């Protein structure tokens, strides 16, 4: 068996496969199930200063992918602070794995939330999903988190047309400790042909995730790995060990999984981890370290 342990910013993950924010980590009970399902670490659903007004329907499968318009947690922050983070922390401690707490969005919102969640958080992840193309709101959010807490701060990039290298460099200069890439892509749209209504409620727009997103997210990870010297959590369309290995070869330290867990349940985390293990053994590696960044230009052997 290969050694699947991974260190990220001083924290020890029992394998490189963690949840990405979404319905499978929407409360403490689900986070316990994710830990039982073999995740290498935990990450809790994004919360903001208010509960999200999630429109219905908010999830649908589309060919090759998945649409959602889930926004952030439907639970108010008070509920997370009084109940859910305790349960999440217990789940993490029982397995000896870290807990990353996801927060959104603006600098003033992060300034309010970060100190409150600190007692439970080993690391923060800041979602930039609704902050737009201008890097300044992201920089303000990073500043707010870094001045409020002493734990590492990850920034999660959305593939919304922004130039990834420039965005990653701006995040690094603002003091981010690592980058997650990517969130879902969009806005996207789908129609239920039986009713003529959009697949998503609200304004009808959704965000694309799942296999259709993978080449785009992978390109973002590949670009970010060449732009900054920060650890990366690769996210987007991962549903197998081979998918995870692609992200690790493009420069990711950990991988995050959301849509595959919605579709196939929480055992997917452990399943992907064991597929990584099988692949490493079959290729003569005893850990993931030797393959990290193998696809990056600096590591490629010239065949010319
Ligand atoms: C239903 C659903 C809800 C999501 N909610 C969040 C969220 O609250 N915060 C966040 O940063 N990303 C959220 N995401 C994005 C995922 O964490 C992930 O970045 C994206 O879906 C790509 O990964 P995947 O293809 O494995 O799903 C959500 C995705 C889905 C499908």
Overview features:
35% helix; 9 helices; 14 strands; 304 residues; globular; single chain; TIM Barrel; four-stranded antiparallel beta sheet; alpha/beta; eight-stranded parallel beta sheet; binds flavin mononucleotide
Kindly describe this structure.
There is one protein chain. With 304 residues, the protein is α/β, with parallel strands linked by helices. The chain has one domain (6-291): TIM Barrel (Alpha-Beta Barrel), CATH 3.20.20.70. 35% of the residues lie in helices and 20% in strands. It is built from nine helices and 14 strands. It has helices spanning 28-36, 77-95, 107-117, 135-148, 164-173, 214-227, 241-249, 259-264, 268-282; strands spanning 6-8, 11-13, 17-19, 42-47, 59-62, 65-68, 99-103, 123-127, 153-157, 178-181, 185-189, 205-209, 232-235, 254-257. Strands 3-14-13-10-9-8-7-4 form an eight-stranded parallel beta sheet. The chain has a four-stranded antiparallel beta sheet with strand order 5-6-12-11, with no helix packed on it. Strand 1 (6-8) and strand 2 form a beta hairpin. Helix 1 packs parallel to helix 2. Residues 20-23, 45-46, 59, 66, 68, 70, 72, 102, 127, 129, 156, 183-184, 209-210, 213, 235-238, 257-260 line the site of flavin mononucleotide (FMN).
């Amino acid at each position: 068996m290969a050694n699947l342990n991974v260190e990220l910013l001083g924290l020890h993950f029992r394998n490189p496969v963690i949840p990405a924010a979404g319905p499978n980590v929407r409360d403490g009970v689900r986070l316990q199930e994710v830990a039982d399902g073999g995740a290498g670490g935990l990450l809790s659903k994004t919360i903001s200063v208010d509960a999200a007004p999630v429109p219905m329907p908010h999830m649908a499968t589309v060919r090759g992918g998945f649409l959602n318009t889930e926004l952030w947690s439907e639970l108010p922050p008070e509920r997370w602070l009084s109940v859910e983070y305790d349960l999440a922390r217990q789940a993490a401690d029982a397995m000896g794995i870290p807990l990353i707490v996801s927060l959104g969005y603006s600098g003033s919102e992060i300034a309010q939330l970060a100190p409150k969640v600190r007692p439970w958080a080993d690391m923060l992840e800041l979602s930039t999903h609704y902050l737009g193309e201008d890097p300044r709101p992201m920089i303000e959010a990073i500043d707010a988190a870094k001045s409020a807490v002493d734990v590492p701060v990850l920034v999660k990039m959305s593939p919304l047309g922004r130039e990834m290298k420039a965005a990653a460099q701006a995040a690094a200069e603002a003091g981010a400790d690592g980058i997650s890439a990517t969130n879902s892509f969009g806005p996207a749209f789908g129609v239920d042909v039986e009713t003529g209504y959009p697949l998503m409620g609200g304004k009808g727009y959704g965000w694309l995730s799942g296999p259709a997103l993978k080449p785009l997210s992978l390109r973002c990870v590949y670009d970010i790995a060449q732009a900054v010297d920060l650890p990366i959590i690769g996210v987007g369309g991962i549903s197998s060990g081979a998918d995870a290995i692609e992200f690790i070869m493009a420069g990711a330290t950990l991988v995050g999984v959301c849509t595959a867990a919605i579709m196939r349940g929480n055992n997917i985390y452990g399943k992907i981890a064991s597929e990584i293990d099988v692949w490493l053994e079959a290729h003569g590696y005893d850990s993931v370290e030797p393959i990290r960044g193998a696809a990056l230009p600096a590591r490629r052997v010239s065949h010319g």
